[in-house]
Design brief:
This protein has about 110 residues and is mainly β. It is about 0% helix and about 55% strand. It has no helices and eleven strands. The radius of gyration is 13 Å and the shape is globular.
């Protein structure tokens, strides 16, 4: 399984951006799909998760500003980011998990300017 992340870019603080993560196969086989981010000098951190039933959870730092959704017909998970802050600047990675396997996509860079 390959995961292709896209949608990163440069945006001003307060703006919005939507990231996409498209799988090479059906995402119905995954228990969870998540977005992580890693800022320079920091560890990779969980942003949020959507499970197979569509329930979502978020890190406190993004709760109320970011929304994860998925389109099973397009094998794609989205991360809608709003009210962006400079501290949201990072490389964002998508992640997918089955019972015994974990898959990572390549990162997509998000830069939020003040």
């Amino acid at each position: 399984v390959q995961l292709q992340a896209s949608g990163g870019g440069l945006v001003q603080a307060g703006g919005s951006l939507r990231l996409s993560c498209t799988a090479s196969g059906s995402i119905l086989s995954f228990n969870t799909m998540s977005w992580y981010r890693q800022a320079p000098g920091n560890q990779r951190a969980l942003v949020g998760t959507i499970n197979s039933g569509g329930s979502t959870s978020y890190a406190d730092a993004v709760k109320g500003r970011f929304t994860i959704s998925k389109d099973n017909t397009k094998n794609t998970v989205y991360l809608q980011m709003s009210s962006l802050k400079t501290e949201d600047t990072a490389t964002y990675y998508c992640n997918a998990r089955k019972v015994v396997s974990t898959f990572w996509g390549q990162g997509t860079e998000v830069t939020v300017s003040s």
